[in-house]
Amino acid sequence: MVDYINNNFNNEEEETKLIISSLLTLSPRCDPP
Q1: DSSP 28
Q2: What is the distance between the alpha carbons of residues 12 and 7, in angstroms, rounded to a whole number?
Q3: Could you say which DSSP state residue 31 is in?
Q4: Could you tell me the superkingdom of the organism this chain comes from (predicted)?
Q5: CA Rg, the chain, in Å?
Q6: b/e map of 13-28 (b: 16 or more CB within 10 Å)?
Q7: What is the distance, to the nearest Å, from the Cα of residue 8 to the centroid of all Cα atoms in its chain?
Q8: CA–CA dist 19, 11 (Å, integer)
């Protein structure tokens, strides 16, 4: 059960990174100089 939770958490973390990357790509104005 713990393995399942950890796996799920890792997947959500990767998904969050993808979402953040997409948002940054969509709004280049927010990128630091």
Answers
A1: G
A2: 9
A3: S
A4: Eukaryota
A5: 14
A6: eeeeeeeeeeeeeeee
A7: 13
A8: 12
